[in-house]
Write a structure and sequence with these properties.
five-stranded parallel β-sheet, 8 helices, 13% strand, globular
Amino acid sequence: ARDVGASLLAAVLDFDEGAVHASLDRLFADRPIEEVIETQLLPFLRQLGGLWAAGEASVAHEHFASALIRRRLSAHTMTWGRGQGPVVILACLPGEQHDLALLCLGVLLGRSGWRVRFLGSDTPIRDVSVMADRVTPDWIVLSGRDPESVTTNRRALSDLSRRHRVGIAGPAAAPGRMPGRVHRHTG
């Protein structure tokens, strides 16, 4: 798995789409998707983000990798609206553009029988609220990297949490920032 991760990173840094797909093929070939997401894809995305922060990878590298991984994961989203499991709304906090980890969460929940409503990046809280009032989810998970986004949207999040179960995921879930009954998960 370590060799596949290294070859995946090298392929992304070279913008070699064929080699990225070959690496992803090896990852998905003999492991359950849940394992691939948890032990390979999410750590890879964190590693690539770290390289970007260090100036060793560009936004183009991140977008290139994200687009190819998203295409691979999209096949696992086709059944999200079916079934009898709990309903979850997944969205990024306003201003948050990075929704690939949230997509991974959706795939994991969908494979566990949840009915996923995925809104993706940069979703206004009022729009999440409109959808939630319509579909009555069991949970709403909002993801983000910037804790300030929670502070900025505190009133809307508090209002939403009075009517629905709301969780904040990612680094935006900084201790002491959650309004009302909003829960945090930093994983």
